[in-house]
């Protein structure tokens, strides 16, 4: 059964929109954990548009479930991860002009950089996951990099409907199976919400689903704990 990683980036987005100290990402992490979140995820972006360095430090101290730090493959971010020691790092692509992550990491084009970053992190005791497209050649490159986990990008699945969505789901299922055959732990995320998560959660061997925006959006209407509980139930197939 898949587990739920709650991404709290957009709690910080709301806070930063008015330059206040609330809503607090740490409080959100606590509420998410009480509601059954199996992991807390944040993305520390280069421009600090939502999560800040202080958020990362405080969350690392306070979070009582595994803490997943998403970040670009840069020297600045690697140094922060080595100092903060999250339970895992997910390397993601990042462009300043994007509203959200637009696709998977180009592991083949950046093979040397990613392999070196992965080694530094793993040598420090931090497991590494790579956020990638569901593609066999990309997964081969992930395995060669030394990473032990991949997060399959579900954005295209989330953005389509009907037969196109079913085709994309089938591609994710095939990729998940192939990744597991390579010995990689499989996670998934991006664009998942309350109406499209269950088919991804039901994929054999799926480990973690990282979901953020839809949970925070739902929480505005029904409260954070209820929003997380509802998503947790969907992930569990209830």
Description:
The structure is a single chain. Helix 4 links the parallel strand 3 (67-71) and strand 4 (88-91). The chain is of the alpha/beta class and 238 residues long. The chain has helices at 9-18, 25-34, 53-62, 75-84, 111-123, 136-145, 155-159, 162-181, 197-201, 213-222, 224-235; strands at residues 3-7, 39-43, 67-71, 88-91, 128-132, 149-153, 185-189, 206-211. The protein is built from eleven helices and eight strands. The mean pLDDT is 96. Helices cover 48% and strands 17% of the residues. The longest helix is centred in the C-terminal third of the chain and has 20 residues, at 162-181. Helix 2 (25-34) packs across helix 11 (224-235) and helix 10 crosses helix 11 (224-235).
Runs in which pLDDT lies below 50 for 5 or more consecutive residues are none
Tell me the Rg in angstroms.
17 Å
Task: Count up the helices.
Answer: 11
Helix and strand succession? EHHEHEHEHEHEHHEHEHH
The overall strand count is 8
Question: How are the strands of the largest sheet arranged?
Answer: 1-2-3-4-5-6-7-8
| Average predicted confidence as pLDDT | 96
How far the N terminus sits from the C terminus, by CA atoms, comes to: 11 Å
SS-based structural class? alpha/beta
The largest sheet is: 8 strands, parallel, barrel
């Amino acid at each position: 059964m898949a587990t739920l990683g709650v991404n709290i980036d957009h709690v910080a987005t709301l806070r930063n929109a008015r330059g206040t100290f609330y809503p607090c990402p740490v409080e959100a992490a606590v509420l998410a954990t009480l509601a059954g979140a199996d992991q807390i995820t944040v993305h520390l972006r280069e421009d600090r548009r939502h999560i800040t360095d202080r958020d990362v430090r405080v969350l690392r101290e306070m979070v009582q479930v595994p803490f997943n730090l998403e970040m670009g493959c840069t020297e600045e971010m690697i140094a922060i991860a080595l100092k903060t020691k999250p339970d895992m790092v997910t390397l993601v692509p990042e462009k300043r002009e994007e509203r959200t992550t637009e696709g998977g990491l180009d592991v083949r084009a950046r093979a040397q950089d990613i392999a070196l970053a992965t080694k530094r992190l793993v040598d420090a005791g931090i497991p590494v996951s790579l956020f990638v497209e569901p593609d066999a050649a990309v997964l081969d490159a992930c395995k060669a990099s030394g990473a032990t986990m991949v997060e399959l990008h579900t954005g295209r699945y989330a953005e389509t409907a009907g037969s196109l969505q079913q085709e994309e789901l089938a591609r994710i299922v095939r990729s998940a199976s192939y990744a597991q055959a390579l010995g990689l732990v499989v996670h998934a995320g991006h664009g998942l919400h309350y109406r499209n998560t269950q088919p991804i959660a039901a994929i054999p061997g799926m480990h973690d689903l990282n979901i953020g925006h839809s949970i925070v959006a739902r929480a505005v209407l029904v409260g954070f704990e209820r929003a997380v509980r509802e998503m947790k139930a969907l992930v569990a197939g209830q």
